[in-house]
Specification:
Blueprint: H1 3-13, H2 20-28, H3 32-47, E1 50-60, E2 76-80, H4 86-99, E3 105-109, H5 110-116, H6 121-134, E4 136-143, H7 150-159, E5 164-168, H8 174-184, H9 190-193, E6 194-198, H10 211-224, E7 230-234, H11 235-247, E8 253-258, H12 271-281, E9 285-288
Parallel strand pairs: 1-2, 1-8, 1-9, 2-3, 3-4, 4-5, 5-6, 6-7, 7-8
Helix pairs in contact: 1-3, 3-10, 4-6, 6-7, 8-10, 11-12
Length: 298
């Protein structure tokens, strides 16, 4: 590990606040290996060798599709897409909870709910209360930057009695994303309502990101954001290879693993077995969780 990165990472590990020069050292270093080693040390300090993952079933919110029989491997029912109204959101949650067999139901982008609430934070609190009473386990996503300021988002979640599965960088990429990560690190209350920080884009970025940039962003997120417990990478978006390497660069949670494969290749080739093998091969111990981040027996 380079001496400069080692010195800065040691300060982080001992809880010493970095000055502007030290922030700049981390943000500008080209030594990806040293950055990864430092992030891995920070990750292991929090989580040891444990890596959590969740297998999900996705249900589009704008259709009347029913679940049918749930895959045995599913540990979360996730509503996807933007509802047309807040009433639709509440109705869909109620419907899925009623047939979900006790599996956590999650979903929605808080910004979408804010827009559907007429950009009225007081109305949004009422919507969150209604969603919680309908059985929503967690709000799916909170943008760190957007029409709903993050500080307001955290307040609204607390007042609505809800938490969010993940804080994301929204549409920010490149240097803008790294600047936003630094700001997130200063939000002391972020971790009280957001279970994870997902530092990589949740949808296809333009211009496309690179593997080097993605791993650098994951490592910097783990090193700089001490106020959120977990760093998450999306299995469905980034695939087994990058997700596996990201675990050695500071990530400790793998999201959105499918409950069933696309074909019948036998249980050894199932998504659940594949994610377990990948986590183990990276040197970590896999731990299945549910949609509300509770460990479950596999």
């Amino acid at each position: 590990m380079s001496e400069d990165v080692a010195g800065v990472s040691q300060k982080i590990l001992t809880g010493i606040r970095l000055n502007d020069e030290e922030w700049a050292e981390l943000l500008t270093t080209r030594d990806l290996i040293s950055l990864g080693m430092a992030a891995d040390a920070a990750r292991r300090r929090r989580h040891g060798d444990r890596t959590t993952f969740v297998q999900i079933v996705e249900v589009p919110v704008v259709t009347n599709a029913t679940l049918g029989s749930l895959p045995e491997q599913a540990r979360e029912i996730r509503l996807t897409g933007r509802p047309e109204t807040t009433a639709m959101a509440i109705e869909r949650v109620e419907a899925l909870v009623s047939v979900g067999g006790g599996l956590p139901v999650t979903g929605f982008n808080l910004t979408d709910l804010f827009e559907l609430s007429g950009r009225d934070s007081g109305r949004l609190v009422q919507v969150l209360v209604s969603l919680r009473e309908a059985g929503l386990g967690l709000v799916g996503e909170v943008w760190a930057e957007g029409p709903l300021p993050a500080e307001t988002a955290f307040t609204v979640l607390r007042e609505g009695g809800m938490s969010a599965a993940r804080l994301t960088l929204g549409e920010s990429t490149g240097d803008e994303a790294l600047s936003l990560i630094r700001r997130i690190a200063s939000w002391s209350d972020a971790g009280s309502v957001c279970r994870c920080l997902a530092p990589l884009p949740r949808s296809l970025a333009s211009p496309p990101t690179t593997g080097y940039g993605d791993l650098r962003q994951v490592a910097l997120a783990r090193l700089l954001v001490d106020n959120i417990e977990s760093i998450q990478v999306d299995w469905s978006s980034y695939g087994p290879k990058l997700a596996q390497v990201a675990l050695t660069f500071g990530a400790d949670d793998v999201d959105a693993v499918a409950s069933v494969g696309h074909d019948e290749r036998g249980w050894r080739r199932s998504p659940g077995e594949e994610i377990r093998r990948n986590i183990t091969a990276a040197g970590f111990t896999p731990m299945l969780r549910d949609g509300c981040f509770k460990a479950v027996k596999s």
